[in-house]
Fold:
Amino acid sequence: MTQLKNGVVKAIYRVRDQKAKLEKRAEGIAVGLTIGTWTDLPQTRHQQVSAHCGQVEGIEIKTELGQDEVIAELTIGYPVANFDDTFASLLTTVFGKLSMDGEIRLVGLELPPDLLARFPGPKFGVAGCRERYQVQARPLVMSIFKACIGLTLPELQEQFAQQAAGGVDLIKDDEIFFTEQYATPEERVDKYREVAKQVAASTGRETAYAVNLTGPVHRLSERARRLSELGAGALLFNVVAYGFDVLADLAADPEIQVPILAHPAVSGALYGGERYGMAADIVLGQLAHHAGADMVIFPSMYGSVTLGKEATEQLLLHLRDARVHKPSLPAPSAGIYPGLVPQLYRDFGNDLIINAGGGIHGHPQGAKAGGEAFCAAVQAVMDGVSLAEATSASPVLAAALAKWGPAV
Amino acid sequence: MTQLKNGVVKAIYRVRDQKAKLEKRAEGIAVGLTIGTWTDLPQTRHQQVSAHCGQVEGIEIKTELGQDEVIAELTIGYPVANFDDTFASLLTTVFGKLSMDGEIRLVGLELPPDLLARFPGPKFGVAGCRERYQVQARPLVMSIFKACIGLTLPELQEQFAQQAAGGVDLIKDDEIFFTEQYATPEERVDKYREVAKQVAASTGRETAYAVNLTGPVHRLSERARRLSELGAGALLFNVVAYGFDVLADLAADPEIQVPILAHPAVSGALYGGERYGMAADIVLGQLAHHAGADMVIFPSMYGSVTLGKEATEQLLLHLRDARVHKPSLPAPSAGIYPGLVPQLYRDFGNDLIINAGGGIHGHPQGAKAGGEAFCAAVQAVMDGVSLAEATSASPVLAAALAKWGPAV
Structure:
């Protein structure tokens, strides 16, 4: 049987096992997780089901542990014909029962174009977001609300105003903001938009608000459309908590005309560790991208707990995979301060969201100054001047460098 | 501030850290994952937000690792007011950002009645399923399709007929059956129902079919209703792959009048290991139950990879938690054969689904005999006779005991 290289999803698993058992194990996965068994099928059915049978694509020993025990990577190919148009079908097949099979981790996933075509991908992508936020030539800058729960609408508006005054492109909700006790998402979108317009008179920029999209699944689309109409700048979405197919529905809905910003909350429960679960670049890179996130927040390399260099690079490759879908904007998060901007530009290039909470609110002169400092740093990089040179025109940048470095 | 014991979700985390840092870490979680910060708030706001602030409920050292490093359990209380009516809000809050914080695992969750009341729970539960399947006094018996992918509708019908002829109460799809190339879920429900009626003439029992509920999220409710109308016996649902709030919508929908059978596919990606992720009893016990699964499949203690005795007991407690919701039926899976039935009854009691694949299809005389052997074993237990005694009236049971034990 000729194997079509298109039309096969390749899953790579890290396992620990006896070297002598690997081949049988791989075969057991390939056959057992597709057609079930060859031996119990009559000859007459073999051809018919063979198009659906998984294949062992490779077995690679990574580490010898002694006493014939090894860490190995098994690559299994699953025919695209076995899936429907959902991430649920993909995950249930490649890491469903198998996820419960002891020490096993899904470390790689190759999705062919004919499978990707079944997923919506981002509606806006990098170019669409740039168009939407009127930022053509530089990285975007996003501030994070310091805290939201328990604050009244006027207090929240004030916090929005202070951040917007710094000239940032986007402001995102705290992703744990679910309570509607003092302010519903609709009220916030409405009020912050007023504030953004007022602030634009000074800054020249109408800051976009990434509102946390919340509530029961069957009401999400309706809410997203409403928030879109009310003027939301983006929809912040806890994709792992809700499910990738829930995101896919939102991305595919033509009446939801606002970019989606995926938050990585709960993803660590899947990717933490090395021996179980699913690699971070799969969860936050591949799945988030192809399910339709226009912008994806993920742990940066500059915080206290990072994904590591290799995982981050792989994640970026996935976000930028433009074979079928528009690329998504990466938004590395944690440990970001103005002095880091040249490094961010070196590590990520221009298509990037510079995303900070403490690095804005913790500025000695407050959030407005914090936003201004980031904008000044970005402008310096775009102008090709060092941050040190830029401080002469920007005291707030000078104060930020004095606090967080680097020393100039 | 008086702490109301109702109205607080308690989350227990296993962490590895320096003993000296535990208190600060716990405080950081309690405050940081709710109101953000005390110190940056003006005094005037303290009372207003205090109702939303998390509390450190306990710090317990579990293991001393030397050099001041320990494994500890931190218990944090989150005010119910911080959540909305979704599992997304619960998970994002108690294990959102925190899941990415290095070596940390969610090992316990206490959900108070006022939070549980926001979730639908099972529509049928144990009593409703017993009523529905007309099985009042004994454990239910369920067969699993051996394989589905690639088979034509007549072949699938034949496999259904063979299993139904064994007199089993339920037959479930292979949970990886997504392709509609040869037979849609609707066609299968319709055809299997015909078959079930025919077989009932011999067995006296109309076997219920647990069809895999598949497809995009926005069409699931419509499909579930349709399958319900066509006569589906239950809806098999890959809840972890789709999301707990997707399940909750189905369970809450009054037009979906058919029990839901949750499959644990993908859950191992969350619970595998000890140092990261979320405990199995939380995922498959608590969340599945309160999201509305009437029946929950989980790895049995008799297979090759088990959850362990303690986790299984905790899982069962959660399924049986009837404070607010109807209890769910446990369906331990893997390594189940007729000779195990008395042990199953001792371990689980009467409210149980005896669920087998290989233990039915692998019977020396085929699937019909396999089902009959299980039914004979169950009858023996209900009659208070030993399996050995029962073999005289049941040659198929004798054959099953000869193959799988125990020796009689």
About this structure: Chain A has two domains: 8-116, 125-404. The first strand of chain A starts at residue 8 and ends at 18. Chain A touches chain B through 82 residues (CB under 8 Å). The domain at 125-404 of chain A is CATH 3.20.20.110 (TIM Barrel).
